[in-house]
UniProtKB/TrEMBL annotation:
UniProt keyword list: DNA-binding, Transcription, Transcription regulation
Source organism, top-level taxon: Bacteria
Organism: Pedobacter lusitanus
Gene3D superfamilies assigned to the protein according to its UniProt record, in alphabetical order: Homeodomain-like
Full protein name: AraC family transcriptional regulator
SMART domains per UniProt: HTH_ARAC
Entry-linked Pfam families: DUF6597, HTH_18
Ranges for domain HTH araC/xylS-type: 153-258
Length: 270
């Protein structure tokens, strides 16, 4: 498979981390199995059904797919070949771009074309007018800019502070510190954060810690697994492995031996 990563335009840099294109080669098998990992971010996929169809369990996924936060790993199957565009958003994108309560899409997805058609923006039809990935991305960028203008939502500064604090600390900042700074009760912080991000502050912090440990594993920045465990404030190596299994679907050792990441946090099972 051929993978290309693309930076977003300046108008969307505050909303999109990066974009990617994944295309199958002639030697790829007809049916492929993939595992996603919890990463703390929503995203968008466009996979034309004429090339291949994505399934989650036995459920056929729409061609133009908007998905929310994942609280655990997910198994996906592809029948056919990849000709996929992906957009990897920042954690707050569902509210800041689309104006939706982020909890509505947690561990779920929706057909983005249906949302676009409500505003007379026929996204799927436009995307299918060209096979050029760059042109398709430009269509998606136009739609996202349209949504942002339509939404016209003010930045939620308290939740942005909470979000930034968790990300920069790799999930290790005490939530009580955030509550005290924002003068919010534990319940109020949880309610507001769930609406903004889609999951609780505690779970988001745990995913941040998992992602920090995964990055260390990817980069071979350790001598033994206990180095990763203690470096990321896990109680011990067993605690680290249990958490890794929860969010990745397999142990750190199995990840090294059985997974091939074709896109960050999307591994082909071999």
């Amino acid at each position: 498979m051929n993978y290309t990563q693309i930076n977003p335009p300046d108008s969307l840099k505050n909303y999109i981390r990066y974009c990617w294109v994944l295309k199958s080669t002639g030697t790829d098998p007809a049916v492929k199995v993939f595992r996603t990992m919890a990463d703390g971010c929503p995203g968008l996929l466009f996979q034309p059904s004429a090339n291949g169809i994505l399934y989650k369990n036995t459920d056929k996924l729409p061609e133009t797919l908007l998905f929310g936060q994942s609280t655990k790993y997910t198994i996906l199957n592809l029948a056919g070949s990849f000709n996929t565009l992906g957009i990897y958003f920042y954690p707050n994108a569902l509210q800041s771009i689309f104006g939706v309560n982020a909890m509505e899409l947690t561990d779920s997805c929706m057909d983005l074309n249906l949302l676009a058609e409500k505003n007379d923006f026929y996204l799927k039809e436009l995307l299918l007018t060209t096979n050029d990935s760059n042109e398709q991305l430009e269509i998606l960028f136009s739609y996202l800019n349209f949504q942002i203008r339509k939404n016209n939502r003010q930045v939620n500064l308290p939740m942005e502070y909470a979000l930034s604090s968790m990300i920069t600390s790799n999930g290790n900042i005490p939530l009580k510190m955030i509550q005290d700074y924002l003068r919010l009760s534990e319940r109020s912080l949880e309610r507001k954060f769930k609406e903004y991000i889609g999951i609780s502050p505690k779970l988001f912090s745990r995913i941040c810690r998992f992602q920090a440990s995964l990055s260390q594993l990817r980069n071979h920045d350790y001598d033994k697994f206990s180095d990763i465990a203690y470096g990321n404030n896990y109680a011990d190596q067993s605690h680290f492995i249990r958490s890794f299994k929860e969010f990745a679907g397999f142990s750190p050792f199995q990840y090294q031996k059985q997974a091939r990441e074709v896109v960050q946090n999307l591994s082909e099972l071999i």
